[in-house]
Amino acid sequence: MTLTSFGPANRIKRSAETHPLTWRLRDDGEAVWLDEYQAKNGYAAARKAFADMAQDDIVQTVKDSGLKGRGGAGFPTGVKWGLMPKDESINIRYLLCNADEMEPNTWKDRMLMEQLPHLLIEGMLISARALKTYRGYIFLRGEYTTAAKHLNRAVEEAKAAGLLGKNILGSGFDFELFVHTGAGRYICGEETALINSLEGRRANPRSKPPFPAAVGVWGKPTCVNNVETLCNVPAIIADGVDWYKSLAREGSEDMGTKLMGFSGKVKNPGLWELPFGVTGRELFEDYAGGMRDGYKLKCWQPGGAGTGFLLPEHLDAQMYAGGIAKVGTRMGTGLAMAVDDSVNMVSLLRNMEEFFSRESCGFCTPCRDGLPWSVKLLRAIENGEGQAGDIETLLGLVGFLGPGKTFCAHAPGAVEPLGSAIKYFRPEFEAGIAPTSAVVPPLAKPIVVGA
């Protein structure tokens, strides 16, 4: 895994002023342990938060910074924190870190946890102080064995230094932190499915309301934030709201920096901390180096397998939620994938939908039955055995499984790339329809309530 600097061709060094997430990284890729982390101003923000800031002031600072969730949904972090109850008599509250990073093409949280475990711990410590939570859990993807090893070591280092446990920094505030490895389910990325799994239950999403801030882990108020989100907190507390907002490019409605990347047959696949508002073209050409010799960019996804495909002409879109929305999809995790001109889109989508179908929790009918149906149709088209009307049926499934039609956001994310692939590359799907196939009535259009 590579991580380059803010500027093309490594002309600009990473610094605390421009790279709040990554400036402490070692050039050799080894983890930054406690002594080195503190030598690089680590836990200074936590000391400031404990000594100089009221708990509500921490929440307000994060809210004013414009920090949004970095897991893909992009919900304002300070607003989410503000949903936690103000009643001081509720003395059992939980902070959960969503580290179940199972989105295909996404590995940003892994890098932070493996190389900067104390940055996450400091972010959780400050957040726990603000939210008055006495216990925290890092719900970690089970396959991230190195991250688990490094996080557990960092937790023990922080305990020994008095930065976790009882009476932290002499403040009278107690906070315990545990690393919990999951059993390997994509659906655990949904916060309420994560909560169910942590409790030892089947990883099904819960009905909302009540939201976790009111009824979360073991029925107590709970806040769930993504790894990268929590890692932004120390810099915001240390250097202030105005500085943090100034990091983003002009025109971006999202503040700060974002870990972005490019995978696929590009010359320099990797991960970089960049300001919100850079264009997809900068990311693709200046950082990823464009396509390898002999390959041509066919299309790309801006932020994981659950985002729609875009064409090369969309590379000039700015990389922030609103900028990507203007060209018809979502920012997602911000880690893009390049699809080269040798790839058949039907085969690619069949592979994707097999993954999403397998990872469905099976709770609601559209997702449980609709995704396997899409796989069956795509497999037939891939083998040249598709029937007339199959493409229309696939488009009908895209509608039936879209936003607001299923219990959680799993199915809408699963069918978004399918709908965009048919939109831009329909001839490749049509090529898989058998010329002598009978006409099959297409799936009826979804009924829109209130239309």
TrEMBL record:
<keyword id="KW-0285">Flavoprotein</keyword>
<dbReference type="InterPro" id="IPR019575">
    <property type="entry name" value="Nuop51_4Fe4S-bd"/>
</dbReference>
<keyword id="KW-0288">FMN</keyword>
<dbReference type="GO" id="GO:0008137">
    <property type="term" value="F:NADH dehydrogenase (ubiquinone) activity"/>
</dbReference>
<dbReference type="GO" id="GO:0051287">
    <property type="term" value="F:NAD binding"/>
</dbReference>
<dbReference type="InterPro" id="IPR001949">
    <property type="entry name" value="NADH-UbQ_OxRdtase_51kDa_CS"/>
</dbReference>
<dbReference type="InterPro" id="IPR037207">
    <property type="entry name" value="Nuop51_4Fe4S-bd_sf"/>
</dbReference>
<keyword id="KW-0408">Iron</keyword>
<keyword id="KW-0479">Metal-binding</keyword>
<dbReference type="GO" id="GO:0010181">
    <property type="term" value="F:FMN binding"/>
</dbReference>
<feature type="domain" description="NADH-ubiquinone oxidoreductase 51kDa subunit iron-sulphur binding">
    <location>
        <begin position="346"/>
        <end position="391"/>
    </location>
</feature>
<keyword id="KW-0520">NAD</keyword>
<comment type="function">
    <text>NDH-1 shuttles electrons from NADH, via FMN and iron-sulfur (Fe-S) centers, to quinones in the respiratory chain.</text>
</comment>
<comment type="subunit">
    <text>Composed of 13 different subunits. Subunits NuoCD, E, F, and G constitute the peripheral sector of the complex.</text>
</comment>
<keyword id="KW-0874">Quinone</keyword>
<keyword id="KW-0004">4Fe-4S</keyword>
<dbReference type="InterPro" id="IPR011537">
    <property type="entry name" value="NADH-UbQ_OxRdtase_suF"/>
</dbReference>
<dbReference type="InterPro" id="IPR011538">
    <property type="entry name" value="Nuo51_FMN-bd"/>
</dbReference>
<keyword id="KW-0411">Iron-sulfur</keyword>
<protein>
    <recommendedName>
        <fullName>NADH-quinone oxidoreductase subunit F</fullName>
        <ecNumber>7.1.1.-</ecNumber>
    </recommendedName>
</protein>
<dbReference type="Pfam" id="PF01512">
    <property type="entry name" value="Complex1_51K"/>
</dbReference>
<keyword id="KW-1278">Translocase</keyword>
<comment type="similarity">
    <text>Belongs to the complex I 51 kDa subunit family.</text>
</comment>
<dbReference type="Pfam" id="PF10589">
    <property type="entry name" value="NADH_4Fe-4S"/>
</dbReference>
<dbReference type="InterPro" id="IPR037225">
    <property type="entry name" value="Nuo51_FMN-bd_sf"/>
</dbReference>
<dbReference type="GO" id="GO:0048038">
    <property type="term" value="F:quinone binding"/>
</dbReference>
<dbReference type="GO" id="GO:0046872">
    <property type="term" value="F:metal ion binding"/>
</dbReference>
<dbReference type="GO" id="GO:0051539">
    <property type="term" value="F:4 iron, 4 sulfur cluster binding"/>
</dbReference>
